[in-house]
Write a structure and sequence with these properties.
The structure holds two protein chains of two kinds. Chain A is of the alpha+beta class. Classes of the chains: A alpha+beta, B alpha/beta.
Chain lengths: 697, 124
């Protein structure tokens, strides 16, 4: 982890944290908190982003951050009052900053006009207080945000050497020079690297020893130097002591002096003499300086190492269940000692697994925080007013899940503002607050992570949804669908209700992309909508991508795993509950509705060993393709945690099978994908009527 | 005797970059995340050179320099400011506080090491 790329990614990680801080602090300001430390903290975060960005030559980001920082500096030094308007500008600037960070991270270009506009707004703030130029701004031309630095690299260019000549340096340090950690002998030693020196200690200023004045310089040096170093190289050695000494550098050339040589001045570097320099930096004395508790110590670890640990723990879990099963097989469970050891091993393995999973767990907060910008942008783009309320941001989810959830979540939040919320006028007319609310929440629920996106908008216009679906040929005309089915139509590929393509959501991708992305993470997404009250999307995700809670079943003599998350219930129906429809179709009547029965063995191409068992065993599963379905299985063994072993690397994608696992007895079992099974069992999607789930009241 | 460097910066990225440069040069590099911790670490470590950021929580770089310089015994310890500022006024302010020198970000490892060698007298 020492290459420049690792620093770059470190910077972006840090920038992400800093943007999180910015978002928090701005929210505090918006909440009316006027603790002076908040503005300082915002300033520092912007400054850190600028500093880091500078290190990677992200000029656009540096330029913008610099201007933003100048405005914040004016605020923290009370030159600029923090009005509601300015707060809004600060908020927007934070947004723009995160856009620039994201663009830089992805090596993408951003629209320069946006940055120019954002800079113009910030400049407007500075104009307002008549601060025409902040000190450092002198270095930065108005319309060009690209920030130029003066690099301090030593000029070691061997081509343009000056001719060998004698240079006389007169150097008289002020006492203050010693107080700043300088040592004249070091400077002289450094000079010696550039040529041959002849030094002379000038003691003419030695004080009257009876009453020495220690504020006066006592020693001085006259250094004659035979060198071919450039004058700048010599000057650079004295760069840090400028203003702390009398210095003159005189050149005597062996060759005739060039007429345009700079005439030696007794104080060649006096432009930064402290006595004449106006102090413009503002003193920063943080008000709430000490909160006692520093940040908790953290350790950064290479992801590969964690992956290794992860795999090892996976093997441990498998090994544990193998041993447990073996003990069971050998009828050793009456040996209480053995049983308790096996049980503690199981608990220990579970503990280790949870601890390792926690390493990869990250709070969803940074992800959620990004959404507040999406809400603002979307609201602005559609002329709506919206606020975002976040709940359960500290909920922790696997790192990969957090990362891969960013796009679908962005899309859904945007969708909620764009299609969910009404315009302020319509909201007022409906007796609602003109400002719409989007709730974004995360919570852990029985081994899953539930993320909901709720709006208080108009709810789905089901008539319109159905009409559009019919027009687009997604369902045959005249189809009778339940409310839930209509709602779910919006996840169909090629569905879009926006009559005019809006800038925001109308990017040719619909919610079907969201569903696909969530499914790829082993999760599902559901929608509930109430007319006039709003719409809620629920994303259910597994806590981790490495381990799955599964139900061990057998079909046609083969053991398989069905993800618990997909199983609604297990039933052994009474013979009268099963109805034969045509030659191949059977329906299960359950609590007043009908669900299609899918014969797993048949779908997977296994021979059916036993003749149709009158006592069927069915798993009710929720599928996207066909709603609730009943999977016909031979036997249900138990529920267990299994370690997911991907198959795609070796076999490509197999419909109906999501992965495999190794069971306790060393047997390999396929992990079924109920969705794929449902789709495969009945590949013609338009024939939904007849087998669909009847509406529940 | 290896040179001990104390790098004070609230940015992880900067701390890592300074540390890498120092490590590569064979210096011992310790870090602190803000001014208050920086001063504490200084007392603890008695480093040969300090490299500090300016804008930091709790105590800024100027505060760090002034606090360290208050003790006359510490006046010979070189303190370098690592900054994005290039304005002469800024350098003057740093110098008044007691800074020995400054390095402008973005820096390259070589010039940072060079400056450290310059002020500590560890020239090769």
């Amino acid at each position: 982890m020492t290459g420049p790329d690792s620093f770059r990614s470190l910077f972006f990680e840090e920038a992400e944290d800093l943007l999180g801080t910015l978002s928090d602090e701005v929210a505090r300001l918006k909440g009316g908190d006027r603790d002076s430390e908040i503005v300082h903290s915002i300033f520092r975060a912007v400054h850190s982003i600028k500093g880091g960005a500078g290190a990677f030559a992200l000029d656009r980001l540096v330029g913008f951050a610099h201007r933003f920082e100048t405005v914040l500096d004016a605020v923290r030094s009370d030159q600029l009052p923090l009005t509601a308007e300015l707060l809004r500008i600060v908020e927007r600037s934070v947004d723009h900053l995160s856009v620039l960070v994201e663009a830089a991270r992805n090596d993408r270009d951003t629209d320069t006009t946006l940055t120019d506009a954002a800079v113009a707004v910030l400049n407007g703030c500075l104009d307002a207080i008549g601060q025409d130029k902040a000190p450092a701004d002198v270095l930065q031309p108005e319309a060009a945000p690209a920030f130029t630095f003066t690099p301090l690299a030593l000029n070691l260019d061997p081509i343009e050497v000056e001719p060998t000549r004698t240079v006389t340096i007169r150097f008289r340090p002020y006492p203050g020079l010693y107080d700043n950690g300088h040592e004249p002998t070091l400077l002289i030693a450094h000079l010696a690297e550039l040529g041959t020196l002849q030094t002379e200690l000038d003691l003419s200023a030695l004080p009257d020893w009876s009453s020495p004045d220690i504020t006066e310089p006592a020693f001085a040096w006259v250094i004659r130097m035979a060198t071919n170093a450039k004058r700048e190289a010599i000057e650079e050695i004295f760069e840090f002591v400028a203003g702390l000494c009398d210095l003159s550098i005189e050149e005597e050339h062996d060759i005739p002096a060039m007429p345009d040589l700079p005439s030696p001045s007794p104080m060649s570097q006096d432009e930064s003499t402290p006595a004449t320099a106006p102090f413009v930096m503002t003193e920063t004395t943080p008000a709430s300086a000490t909160d006692g508790l520093g940040p908790r110590p953290t350790l950064r670890v290479d992801l590969d190492r964690i992956e290794r640990l992860f795999n090892a723990v996976g093997e441990l879990i498998i090994n544990q269940s193998m041993i447990a099963q073996r003990v069971d097989d050998l009828q050793m469970h009456h040996d209480t000692d053995m049983s308790s050891h096996v049980e503690s091993y199981r608990l220990l393995a579970r503990d280790i697994q949870e601890a390792v999973m926690a390493i990869r767990a990250q709070p969803v907060k940074p992800l959620f925080q990004r959404m507040s910008r999406i809400v603002r942008e979307a609201a602005e783009g559609t002329g709506k007013q919206a606020q975002l309320v976040m709940l359960g941001e500290s909920t922790e989810v696997d790192k990969t899940v957090v990362e891969r959830l960013a796009d679908p979540l962005t899309h859904m939040v945007r969708n909620s503002v764009d299609h969910g919320l009404e315009s302020p006028e319509r909201r007022l007319a409906a007796g609602k607050d003109p400002v719409g609310t989007i709730w974004l929440s995360a919570a852990h629920r029985s081994g899953s992570v539930i993320i909901t996106i709720r709006d208080d908008g108009a709810g789905l216009d089901r008539e319109k949804v159905l009409r559009v679906a019919v027009t687009k040929g997604l369902v045959p005309a005249g189809t009778e669908l339940s409310e839930a089915e209509i709602d779910n139509l919006i996840f169909q590929p090629g569905f879009s209700t926006a009559s005019a393509t809006s800038l925001l959501s109308g990017r040719g991708v619909g919610l079907d992309v969201v569903r696909t992305a969530v499914q790829a993470l082993g999760g599902r997404v559901n929608i509930t909508s109430r007319p006039g009250k709003g719409t809620e999307f629920t994303i259910t995700l597994p806590l981790t991508l490495a381990v799955l809670d599964g139900m061990l079943i057998s079909v046609g003599g083969t053991s398989m795993i069905v993800p618990i998350a997909a199983v609604l219930e297990t039933i052994r129906p009474l013979p009268g509950d099963v109805e034969q429809i045509g030659p191949d179709e059977r329906l299960l009547s359950i609590r007043g509705r009908y669900v299609p029965i899918i014969d797993l063995a048949e779908t997977l191409g296994f021979p059916r060993a036993e003749a149709d068992d009158p006592a069927m065993l069915l798993l009710l599963v929720e599928t996207e393709a066909r709603g609730t379905c009943a999977l016909l299985v031979d036997r249900v063994h138990d529920q267990r945690q299994v370690v997911i072993k991907g198959l795609e690397g070796n076999y490509g994608q197999v419909t109906g099978v999501s992965a495999a696992t190794v069971l306790g007895d060393g047997q390999i079992a396929l992990i079924l994908d109920p969705d794929g099974i449902a789709a495969q069992s009945h590949p013609i999607p338009s024939q939904t009527s007849g087998q669909r789930v009847a509406a529940l009241p | 005797m290896r040179i001990t460097v104390l790098a004070i910066d609230d940015s992880r990225t900067m701390r890592s970059m300074v540390r890498r440069a120092m490590d590569a040069a064979g210096f011992v590099c310790e870090v602190a995340e803000d001014g208050v911790e920086g001063v504490r670490r200084f007392e603890e470590l008695r480093p040969d050179v300090v490299i500090t950021d300016i804008n930091m929580p709790r105590m800024d770089g100027f505060g760090v320099i002034e606090t360290i310089r208050q003790d006359a015994a510490n006046r010979s310890v070189p303190i370098l400011v690592l900054t994005t500022e290039t304005a002469p006024e800024f350098k003057a302010r740093a110098q008044t506080a007691g800074a020995t020198g400054w390095i402008v970000k973005p820096f390259d490892d070589q010039s940072l090491v060079m400056v450290v060698r310059r002020v500590t007298g560890s020239l090769r």
